[in-house]
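Q: Protein A?
A:
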Amino acid sequence: MKISNPHDVFFKEVFSDKERVVDFINSTLPEELKKNLDLSTLVLDNNSYIDEELKENFADIVYNCLYSGKVNIKISLLFEHKSKPVKYPHLQLLRYMLKIWERNIKQKEQLIPIVPLIFYHGKQRWELRKLSDYFEGIDEVLKGYLPEFNYLLTDLSCYSDEELKGRVFINEALKVSLLVLKNIFDKKRLREHIEGFFAIGKMYYEEERGLKFLEGVIRYIYSSTEIKPEEVIEAVKSVSEKGGEVAMTTAVKLREQGLQQGLQQGLQQGAYNKAVETAKYLYSKGVDLELIAEATKLSLDELKRLIN
C-alpha cells in the first residue's frame, strides 16, 4: 500500500521528536541566533499553519521557544516536499507568517516573532536569495518598500553522505533519517547504501523506541520507492535481528492495508454503480429527481450530470 504524502508523514515523524530537533538546531542554526535560544523551553506546537494553497509545496512542524530569556518565538520547520525548489519562496513564507500573526490577533495575543527554516531534500540545489533579488532594475529607494526578511535553509543536496554520517549531527536516528531523505529520489544509490544507513542506528534498534523509529523509516521506503520489501528486510536483518522482524511485519501490515483499501474502494464503486442503475430506472419511469436523490443518496447535481 502506498501512503498518501509519505514524505510529509516521515518528516513529521522525525521532527516531532524534541531530542532530534535539538540536535538539528545545534547543528544547523547560525551561532548569533542559537546562543540566545533556551532549548530547554522548546515545546512542540500541535497546530499546523499550512493552508490548502501552501500544502502544494510545504508541510510544517512548529516549536515554541524562549529567546533571550524573555521573548516567546516560533521556530517553523517548513518541509519542501517536491523534488525541486519553489520559484519564489519568500511569497509562500510571507503568506505562512501572516497566517500565524492573524491568529495571534484573533486570539488577542501579542504578535510572536517567527524564525522560518526551509528543509529541502531534492536533487537540484536551492539558491538562497533575497526578496529584492527577484525585482529587476530597482534602486535602494524602491527596496525600502519591499517586505524584506530572512529565512534559514537546510538543503540536503549540499551535504555529502559522509558529512551526514559523521561530523554534522550527533543523534543517530536523525542521521539515518536525513540520509534516507537525501537519497530517496536516487533509488540506485539508496539501494546500494541502505544497509550502511541502517547500520548507524544499530544499538538504537535494541530499544522499543528505536524499533518504532525503524518501522517509520521502513514504511517510508516501502511507500516512496520501488525497492522490493525483500531487499529492505535483508538489509535491516544484517544489522539487527529484531529490526529484520520489524521490516517483515511492516511489509505484511502494508500489504494487508492495501488489500483492505482496494476491497473498500471496490465495494464503494459497486454501491455507486448500483445507485446509478436504480436512478436511471426510476427516471425512466418518470419519478421526480428529488425523490430519486432521496432513494439513491445521489446528489441532485450528480443526477443532473448523469441525465445530461
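Q: Protein B?
A:
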Amino acid sequence: MLVPELYCSDLARSLTFYKDILGFSLRYERPEERFAFLDFEGASLMLEQPCDPSRIWLSGSLEQPYGRGVNFQIEVQAVDPFYARVISAGLRPFWEMEERWYRCKNNVQGNRQFVLADPDGYLLRFFQNLGTKPVKPT
C-alpha cells in the first residue's frame, strides 16, 4: 500500500476542497498537529500543514505550487457524475475530460479521465477504467 502525505499551506482550505467538494471522507485527524487522513473509493492520502520545524521532511524549499512534477491517479467508479460535481462546484479542471488509451505490451488500456489541481497545486487525475483491448496491427 502506498499512501502519499501532502504538505498543504492551509489545512482547513484543503479539507474543504477534499471533503466538501470532492467527497473524500475523514478517517481520522490530529488537529494539534494539523494532520488529516482521508479516503475516497479505496484511495487514501494524508494532508499536513507543517507546524513543527523539527518534523518537516523536505528535499528542497517548500514553495507554491507545492505539487510541482507529480500527479496522483485516482480510480473512481463513475467519472462522469464526479466530473459534473466538480464543474458544478465552480472548479476548473487542469485538463478537461478525455478518453485516452495507453499501450501496455500487446494491449491498450482505456481511461476516461480528467485532471484537477488541488489548492496547493497537486494534480489529481481521476479516471474510470474502460478496459483493455488488443493493439491494432499497423
